[in-house]
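Translate sequence into structure tokens.
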Amino acid sequence: MKIMLALFGLSPHLHANGSYGQSSLRDLPGIELFVHCAGDSEVKKLENKIKERLKARLESANVPLSDMGEGKLKFLLTGFKKKEGDYFVYASLQLHQRAYLAINHEYMDCQTWDTWKMGVFNANEILSEAEDMAREFANDYISANIL
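Result follows.
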């Protein structure tokens, strides 16, 4: 049970060099970006566009991206056609990193920051919502690293 709580960032025994959420972004030297879209074939086709937009948004905010980053920023989207041009979508943006579990004095890879959205969107709105989620991450990253 404690491991399940830690995996979802709900445990008071979890901290990644300090904690969960915005403060887990402090002094993070690099972030590796992953994008995965599942569901309707038209939604899957958005994967590269979403990755380009997220990358551009993060780079414009000076969030350090790296192919071997210590944190893994994962954008996961599942969408199914509701009607012509509109999709029911669930999207999450999650940071996974190595975190210390104080309860058993071990390290494990787990989710330390997240945001999500769900609703009915067209393709352009999906791209816009993905950018908004990246902007939220970038704002938290900037806030956590202000000297």
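Note: The two ends are 37 Å apart (CA to CA).
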